[in-house]
Amino acid sequence: MALIQYPAELPAPLLDGYALKKGDNRIRTTMASGRARQRRRFSRVPTELSASWRCHGNQAALFEGFVVHALGDAIAWFTADVLTPQGLIPHTLRFITDPLSDCKPLGPRTWEYRARIEIENRAVMSVEQTVAGLLDPNTLEQFTQGVVDAVDSYQE
């Protein structure tokens, strides 16, 4: 079954108040010595997004219609672009809180909606992309050759 796509006619969330909060996937145990052990509990945890939308004119009615009819009163999963450090990336989302339960008029034709959203699996760089970014502007081969040259030219 195809996921519902957030309509392009509706505004993106505002940056004011926009925050990503990853769920904790670690267990921390404090030992009798005062030191602590940490281990990963889960390999994948949801990320929570706090967002708000400002809708002008007919956008507010469209936003409410989308939430009620397309998402079954903010229950169904949907896809939308999410702003991350990598830029705008499509993610699978669902509302934690109903945006229609926290809306207010800002003027005669402007409405603001607020909600918390669950991101099913937040995208992060792959291992290869991370290594390439750390080695930039060199490639892995250039870095490796530089290490070999440094070891070969090392004088005791």
Plain-language structure description:
- The chain is α+β, with helices and mostly antiparallel strands and 156 residues long.
- The protein has helices at residues 59-70, 127-135, 140-152, and strands at residues 4-5, 19-22, 26-30, 36-40, 47-56, 78-84, 87-95, 103-107, 110-119.
- The strands form two sheets. Strands 1, 2, 5, 6, 7, 8 and 9 form a seven-stranded mixed sheet that branches. Strands 3-4 form a two-stranded antiparallel ribbon.
- Strand 6 and strand 7 form a beta hairpin.
- The mean pLDDT is 89.
Short key terms for the protein model shown above:
3 helices, elongated, 156 residues, 9 strands, seven-stranded mixed β-sheet
Short summary of the structure?
The chain has 156 residues and is an alpha+beta fold. The protein contains three helices and nine strands, in the order βββββαββββαα.
| End-to-end C-alpha gap | 66 Å
- Unreliable runs: none
Could you give the count of β-strands?
9
What structural class do you assign from the helix and strand content?
A: alpha+beta
Oligomeric status of the shown chains? single chain
Q: Helical region count?
A: 3
State the shape: elongated
- Helix and strand run: EEEEEHEEEEHH
Mean pLDDT reading: 89
Largest sheet properties: 7 strands, mixed
Proportion of helical residues: 10-25%
Radius of gyration: 23 Å
Residue fraction in strands: 35-45%
Blueprint of the fold:
Blueprint: E1 4-5, E2 19-22, E3 26-30, E4 36-40, E5 47-56, H1 59-70, E6 78-84, E7 87-95, E8 103-107, E9 110-119, H2 127-135, H3 140-152
Parallel strand pairs: 1-6
Antiparallel strand pairs: 2-5, 3-4, 5-9, 6-7, 7-9, 8-9
